[in-house]
Amino acid sequence: MRNPHKARKSPKKGRPGFSGVKIGILLGVIAIVSAMVFLTGTKSSNASPKKYKATREIVVDQQTGQRRMPTQEEIDEVVTNLSTLANRPENLPATEGAGGAEMVDLGGGFNGVMLARPDADGGLETKCVFTFEEGAEFLGLVEDISAE
Q1: CA distance 82 to 115
Q2: Does the residue 19 lie in any domain?
Q3: How many whole angstroms separate alpha carbon 15 and alpha carbon 7?
Q4: Quick one: which of 8, 90, 91, 114 has the most CB atoms within 10 Å?
């Protein structure tokens, strides 16, 4: 026989579906996967067979705080990252959406890339670029034709 004074558990009430915790976990997983895809893409081999050299001091030395020319390894890393981030896919497929609108998947492209370089006063000069060439020019990177 049941005790009438004992508290009974009532079933959970609320909206069916995802709880706030589940949504938080889902967003966390998406963020981790996105970061892994980005890091994997930036660690891949240089997409451009060209070699570049620096014409300006774009690195601040962590020990001295002074501007310096980048090493070849730093240049290669910047070129690889800039090539990936400034990628502009072409001939993207279009589909017809509701009401006859044309929808195009941009394939992760067409975002500007914010770059910064140290200036002589110890501050940073910034610029939003949309192509690899714009970014290379801003950073003072030129093709090294002596490497061929």
Answers
A1: 9
A2: no
A3: 24
A4: 114
